[in-house]
Structures are given as structure tokens and as C-alpha cells.
Amino acid sequence: MSDIDFDNVGFGTLAIHAGQEPDKLYGALATPIYQTSTFCFETVEEGTAKFGGQIPGFCYSRGGNPTTVALEKKIAMLEGGEACISTASGMGAVGGVMLGLLQAGDHVICGECVYGCTDVVLRTTLQKFGVEVTYADTTDLESVKVAIKENTKLIYFESLTNPTMELTDIAAISKLAHKNGVLVAVDNTFTPPPEVYPLKEGADIVLHSCTKYINGHGDVISGAIIGSTELITPIRKGVTSKICGTTPSPFNSFLILRGLQTMELRMARHCENGMAVAKYLESVPYVKKVYYPGLESHPQHEVAKTMMHENYGGIMSFELQEEINGMDGFEACKKVVNALKIASIAVSLGDPGTLVQHPASMTHANMSKEARAEAGIKEDLIRLSVGLENSKDIIEDFKQAFATLE
Fold it and tell me: N6-(pyridoxal phosphate)lysine: which positions carry it (predicted)?
């Protein structure tokens, strides 16, 4: 296993083999679940050396566990980073980045449209601790440039915004940020490898809700923070394993390791189905607009072709007409969503099954109406995570649901 040149293999090979070797004790092919809270030492001297970091090893699973370390190595290699911290949730990753990189008196620039819970952390929690936050349109380089202050320490945004599906030029933002001594953190949940590689584009930190595409089976809550060893080590030592205590369970790490081995195949099907469904939705007269970077109608389609390597994923949003047969957009949304049979009403994404939700009343309900309006999250907007079913069946499901509006 150690003879594999991971710098010169394809994504699928990397996803299967990176970070994992047959168990040295019994030869188990699958990484064992080390379901233990603590680890024993042969001598006091050994324990002292491991706690002090003089020799490698494990002491207590909150600070490190063999199953989780295998996962962290794999995710770091998939993203092209030196180190990775696995967390108990996506918000654990967000909190780890914010508390690990910022202190009172610092200033953060955040993209206008981010996940609702992230928005709450930025608008309320961080400001309570003396961190100033400015929201800017990260698709507009000039808006970000104007927002930078002397105390700006971090620019934070999503590679593909949730749920408005706008792309940010990571390379351009990173160049601007580094010129001003500012770090860049990118939430890459919606566009994981092999779609977008933020670190290769110049970002300093990339984070994920591994609950979504990375695990891919809808049975784990998890997150990850990836970057250089220099940036990741203090976050692990002082934040995720201490003040936040967001260490994942070994069993969840095992499940994600399992899920990652089919990631290349899963993502190919998500992308294929996503394009088919997006093209269908664009043809529906009740649909006002479809937000999917793979469509030529998307205003950033040319950027998407380059940055996403023509892998456009399975996540999209679409708006209904403002008035449909006497119904306003929100009423029509509810009627369509409630009529779906294959697609489940659920707020996650990246599952094998197709999921649909209404952002304004679900994932982004914690945001004020004014904040949602600023972010472009309308009442008649539906977010769709296209699953791995046969695309014709997903489309037929939507056809029968739209028929209820007649």
C-alpha cells in the first residue's frame, strides 16, 4: 500500500486507497472501528512521551483515534491539503474555523448568502465576542476589495452559495486577500472534489459538512476542516478537541470511510442526473428560473466550466412564477413539493435519494426576512438535491407534481 504514488493516481483510486491500509494486527481490509474512549500504555514513560508528542500514538479519543485519523488522511488528500480535522458536524467545522482563526477586535468578510446556521453564528455569536462581520457580494471582486479593513483577518464564503447557486472566483478572491494579509476559508460542501478544489485555487482553509456528499448515504452527521499543518494544528489542539469538543465518534468515521470509497461513482451519477433534471425544469412553464451552474442560462456558466471541471453536481434551486392559477408562488411551492412521491421533503443534500426543501421556511428560517431578501432567497424558491435514482423517474415525479397546479 505504501508504494502507491498518490500524486499520480485518479480520483477514484485516491478515494479508495488514501489513508487506509490493511490492519497491521489482523490484516483486516476495512479500517477497524476503534470504539474506545481511552488507550493503555505499557509504561508511565510511554504515556508521558505520547502525551507530550515525543512519540506517535493515541491517548484519548477526543484528541485522536485510529479510525478517525484514517478518515482525516483520506479527506486531506482528496482536497489536496496537508492536514484535516474531522468534526462531529458541519457546524463543528464552521465553529472550529471561526474560533481557531479569530479573536476579539478582528473583522470578517462573509459572502452575502451562506447556510442559515452559519449566518446565525456570524450575525450573533461572533459579534457577542467582539468580532466584527461585514457581508459582501463575493461574486463581485470590487465589493470585497472595498470591504477590507486594517483589522480584516478572514474572508469566508461558500464555493456555491446555498441556496442561490452563485459561484465565487476563489482564485481571484484569494489573490486579493493574500495581498492584504487576509486568510480565505471556503465552505466546499456543495461542490466537493472532483468538482471544486479551493486549496488549489488559493484558499487557505476548506471546510465541509461531511453529512452531505462526502458520506453520501444520509446516515452520519459530520464535518471536516482542511488546510496547511500550520493552520490546522492550533485549531485541533485549542478548539475542536478543547473548547468545542467536536470530535466525531469512531463509528461515524468508519461509515464515512465506507461512503468515500464510492464517491467518484456517486458524484458522476449526481452530475448526470442533475443536468437532466435541470434541463427538464427549465422547460416547465410554471418555473420562472432555474439556478444550476451547468446550464448555459446560468450567468456564471463560463466560470463554472473552468472551476467545476464540467462536474456540475446534483444540487440546484428553482423559482416558480409569482402567480399560478390564482396561487402565489409560496402556495404553489407547497403544492408541488407536497405532491412529490420519489423526492422526499428533507433539508439535507447529497443523499442517494432525491431531497427537496423550501429554504425560506426551513434551512434559512432563522434569518430575518430582510436578510433573506438581501441574499436573494425568495418565498417561491425551491432547493433540490437530485439523487441517484433513474433520472427519468425523477422527472416523471416532477411532471405529476406540476400537474397539480393545473
Answer: 212
Residues 206, 230 contacting (CB under 8 angstroms): no
| Residue matched to cell numbers 471556503 | 186
Q: Which of 74, 135, 169, 212 is catalytic?
A: 212
What pLDDT, in 10s, does the model give residues 277-308? 999 999 999 999 999 999 999 999 999 999 99
Is residue 4 in some structural domain?
Answer: no
Q: Is 341 marked active-site?
A: no
Residues 162 and 270 in one domain: no
pLDDT digits (tens, 9 = 90+) for 309-350: 889 999 999 999 989 998 888 899 999 999 999 999 998 999
Q: How far apart are CA 291 and CA 342, in angstroms?
A: 21
> Which of 181, 177, 170, 187 lies closest to 225, judged by CA?
187
Whether 328 is catalytic is: no
Instruction: Decide: 304 and 293 in contact? Cβ < 8 Å.
Output: yes
Catalytic residue among 50, 62, 175, 258: 62
Domain contains 27? yes
Is 62 designated active site?
yes
Q: Which region holds residue 53: left if phi is over 0, alpha if psi is between -120 and 50, else beta?
A: left
Residue 341 grid cell: 412521491
376 and 303 in one domain?
Answer: yes
Last residue of a domain, one of 204, 231, 260: 260
pTM of full prediction above 0.90: yes
In this structure, is residue 224 part of a structural domain? yes
The torsion region of residue 91 among left (phi > 0), alpha (psi -120 to 50) and beta comes to alpha
Residue 383 annotated among the catalytic residues of the structure:
no
Options 169, 187, 204, 397, the catalytic residue: 187
